[in-house]
Amino acid sequence: MRLHRLDIQAFGPFGGAQSVDFDELSAAGIFLLHGPTGAGKTSVLDAVCFALYGAVPGARQSGQGLTLRSDHAAPATRTEIRLELTVAGRRLEVTRQPPWERPKKRGTGTTTDKAQSWLREYDATAGAWKDLSRSHQEIGEEITQLLGMSREQFCQVVLLPQGDFARFLRADAEARGKLLGRLFDTHRFAEVEKRLAERRRAAEAEVRDGDAALLADAHRMQQAAGDTAESPLPDLAPGDPGVAETVLAWAAVARSTARERLTLAHCARTAAASAHAAADRALDDVRELVRLQRRFTEARERAGRLEERADAHREAQARMERARKAETVAPALDLREATEAEHRSAATEEARARAVLPGTFADAGAPGLASAARRAAEELGGLESARRAEQRLSDLVAERADLDRQERADGDVLHEAESWLAEWDATRADLQARIESAQQAATRAEQLAVQREPAQQRLRAARQADQFAADIEATQAQVLASTERALKAHARWLDLKEQRLNGIAAELAANLTDGEPCAVCGATEHPAPARKVAGHVDREAEESALAEYQRADERRVEDERRLGVVREAWSAARAEAGDTPTARLDEQVEELERLHAEARQGASGLHPAHEELRAAEQERERRAAALQQAAVRAASRVAHRERLDREKASLEQELEQARGSADSVTARAAQLEREAARLTQAADAARTTELTAQRLKDADARLADAAFRAGFETPAAAAAALLDDAAHRDLQRRLDAWQSEEAAVRAVLAEAETAAAAQRPPADLREAEQLAESAARRLQETASGQDAAARRCIELDRLSSQAAASVRRLGPLRDEYDRVARMAALAAGTSADNERKMRLESYVLAARLEQVAAAATVRLQRMSSGRYTLVHSADRAGRGRSGLGLHVVDAWTGRERDTATLSGGETFFASLALALGLADVVTDEAGGVRLDTLFIDEGFGSLDDQTLDEVLDVLDSLRERDRSVGIVSHVADLRRRIHAQLEIVKERTGSVVRQRGVR
C-alpha cells in the first residue's frame, strides 16, 4: 500500500482546504511531520484512517460525526477527506464527507446533511477515473479486503501510535494476549476451546441421561416384579460405577423368580377350570328340570282359559259365515250407491244452471233450451263487422291523442331549447373561468409536491430519533438489570465454588474402595472417610452456576452492544432531522399536506371542466337542430289531423245503429255470448238428469235380485251383514288365535318328557346357582393370577431387553465422552498431558509472539549496536499456566531480564523495533500485502545522538524495500537530520500545511 495524495477540508484544526503530496515526501525515504503542540500532526494520520475506514483510530473515536468538523471552517464549507493510494496494483481514490450542519437555503437556522462516500479507480487504458461505489458498506468491505487488515490492525501496523508499543513491551501476559488476539484474529482458537468444552458437557450430559434412563428402567422392573422379587434393587445414582452390571444382574434374578410364579399359577387355574365345568353341568340339569315343570303348569292354565272362551268363539264363527254370504251382494250395493250419487249431482247441476236464466225459460225442457241457444249465437255472428268498426274508431282516437301529445312535446322542446340557447354565453364564460382556476391550482400543487418529500423525510427522522431516545432509556434499564444479574450470578458461582472446595474431601471419599490406595495420601485403609453433609455442593451444581453466570454475562454484553447500536441510530436520525422540534416539523408537514391537498382538490376540476365545456358545445348544436325538426313536424300534423276527423265521424254513425241499447258493440256482443252459454249449459244439465234417473231405477232392480239369491230378506239386511276390511281382519285374527292356542296346549300336554318331569319333586335352582358362582369366582381368581404372572414376565423381559439395549448404546457414548473430555482438558490447559498448562489460544499467540520477537530482534540489534535481543518467555504465570512473557537478552552480561528494566531511550527503540517486527508479521499474516508507507508517532526525544543515528539508519534501511517512513516528532534535531518535512503551522484561523525539502 502506497499513499499518493491527501486532501483535507474543514477537518480537525484545518479550517480551509489543505493538500499533502506523499509522492514527493516519500521520494526521500524518510520524512518528518512536525509542528507545535495542538497544530494537527496527529490529525493528518486521523484523516488517512478516516478516509480508508470511515473512523479515526481507537484512542480518538470520540471524535466521530459532527465533532470531526473544524471549528475554524466557514459555515458553508463542507468537511471532506480525499485520499489517493495504490493497493494491490490498483490506484484508488476514496472521498468521505461526514455528516455536518449547514445553514438552511431558505430561512434561518441550520439543517444536517447525511454522510457521503465515493470510491473511484483510475483506468490507465482510458486515462480517466471511473466510479465504483457510493455505499459506505461496500466501500468499507472493498478497502478491508484489499488491505487485508481491519481498522485496529491498520492503526497498529501502519500508524504506529504514541506509547502503545512501550505499553505492549512492558505489559503483562493478559494485556499482551488481548492485543495479539485482535491483530492475528486468534479468537477462532478460543472458539475451538469453547466448542470442545461444550461438547464435553454435552457428552457428559448424554452419559448421565443414559444412566438415568437405565436406572428408570430398573425401577420400572422393580415395580413390575412387585413382592415377587427375592431381594430389593440396590440404591444407585447416575454416574455410579457398575450401574449397568448391577442392573442386568438384578434383572436376571427377578425374571427367574417371575417364571416360577407363572408355573404355579397355571396349575391352580387348570384345577379351578375342571371344578367350574362340573358345576356348570349340574346347574344346566337343574335348570332343564325347572323349565319342564314350569312348562307343564303353564299348559294346564292355558287349557282352562280356552274352555272359558268357547261360547264367544262359536258366535264369532257364525258372524264370519254371514259376512261371507253378504260379500256376494256387495257389488250390487256399490253400483246402486254410485248411481244414486251421480243422479243427485246431475239434479243439483241442473238447478244451478236454471237459476241464472230469465223467468221465461223456467218450465222449458231440454229441446226448448237448445233452440233458444242457437238463436242467440246467430245474432252474435251478425255483430262481427260492427266490432271491427268499433276497433278502428278506438285506433283513430288513440292516433288523434298521439298527435296532440306530439304537438305538446314539440312545444316543450321549442321552449326549452330557446331558454337554454339564451343562457349559452354565460355558461361558456363560467366554464372557461373554472378551467383557468383549475390550471392555476395544478401549478401550485406541483410546487408544493417538491417541498413535501424533504419535509416528510425530516419528520420521519425526528420521529425515529424520539423513538430511539425512548429505546435508549429502555435499553439502559436492561443493561443495568443484566449487569446486576451477571454480578449476582458471578457471586453465587464463587460462593458455590468455595463451598465445594470446603467439602471436596467428601467427594474424594466417595470414590474410596477398601484395599485400593487413596488418590491423595496413598493409604489402602480408610478408617474414617469424610461424609457429605446436608447442602453439599457437587461439581454439577458448580458448573451449573458457572454456566448461569456465563449466560448472564453474555446477556449483559449483548445488551451493551444493543445500547451502542441504538445510540448510533439515534445520532444518525437526529443528524438527519436537524434541531427543529418534532412537533414543529409535524406542524410544517401537516400545513404542507393541507395546502397540497387543497391545490390538488382545485386541480382535480380541470378535466371535468374541459369535459363540461365540450359537452355544452355539443348540447348547443343538438338543441339548434331540435328547433328545426320540431317546426317541420308541426306542419305535417295539420293535414293528418283533418283526415282523421272525417273518418271518425263516418264510423260513429255506423256504430250507433249496431249497438242498439247497449253502451257499445262489445257490450252487446258480451250480452249475447253470456246468454248463449247459459242456455247451452242448462240444456246439457237437463239431458244428464234424465239419463241418471233411468240408471238409478235399473240399479234398484238388480240389488233386490242379488239379496234374494244370497238368502237375505231385504237389501238392507245384506248391507248390515257386511264387514269392512278392518273388522274382517280382526275377526279372522281372533278365530286363528283361538285355534293356534288350542293346538299348542294339546301338543304340550301330549309331551312324554314334560309329563314325566311334572311327576318329579320340585328342583332347588338357587343352591345349584350358588355352587356354580363359587366355582366361577375361583376360576376367575386363578385366571387373574396367571395373567398377572404372565404380564409380569412379559414386562420384565421387555424392560430387561430395553436395559440391555441401553447398556449397549451407552458404550460408545462413554468412549466418546472420554475422548472429548481428554481433548477439552488438553485445549483448556488443565490436562496432565499439557505440561505447560497452556490454553490453545495462548499457545498460538505464543508462536506468533516468537515470530514477532525474531523479526524485531533483527532491527533491535542494529539500534542497540548488537547489545539487545528480544526473546519469548514461556515462564509460567498465575494459576500454574504458561504465559506470553517477553524478555530482553543483554549481550554484555549474558543475562535474560525483564523488559521493564530498560531505560527510557532503550524502551523507545526496543518498542520501535517491536512495532516494525509486528508490522512485518501482520503483513505476512494478511496475505503479504505490501506496506510502502509507515508512520511513527513521537518518542525520539528520549534518545541520545548516537542512538538516534542508529535508529535513523534502521529506518533509512527501509528504503531498500522501497518503503517510506513518516516520523511525527517535536525533536528539533530531527529537522536538521531529515530534509523532507511536512510542517503543520498553527494559526488563529486554523492550521495550514507546508512541505519543505522536497523536489
Describe the structure.
This protein is α+β, with helices and mostly antiparallel strands and 999 residues long. Among the domains are: 1-148 and 933-999, P-loop containing nucleotide triphosphate hydrolases (Rossmann fold, 3-Layer(aba) Sandwich), CATH 3.40.50; 167-185 and 839-928, Rossmann fold (3-Layer(aba) Sandwich), CATH 3.40.50; 424-604. Helix content is 67%, strand content 10%. The protein has a 6-stranded antiparallel sheet. A hairpin with a 6-residue loop joins strand 16 (981-985) and strand 17 (992-996). Residues 62-66 have low confidence and may be disordered. It holds the Pfam family AAA_23.
Q: What is the number of helices? A: 26
The CATH topology assignment of the domain at 1-148 and 933-999 is Rossmann fold
Shape by Cα distribution: flat
Helix percent band: 55-70%
What top-tier CATH class of the domain at 1-148 and 933-999 fits best?
Alpha Beta
Hey, roughly how much beta strand do the residues contain? 5-15%
- Under the CATH scheme, the architecture of the domain at 1-148 and 933-999 is 3-Layer(aba) Sandwich
Strand order of the largest sheet: 2-1-4-5-8-9
Which residues sit in consecutive blocks of at least 5 with pLDDT less than 50?
62-66
The CATH homologous superfamily name of the domain at 1-148 and 933-999 equals P-loop containing nucleotide triphosphate hydrolases
Class from secondary-structure proportions: alpha+beta
* Rg, nearest Å: 63 Å
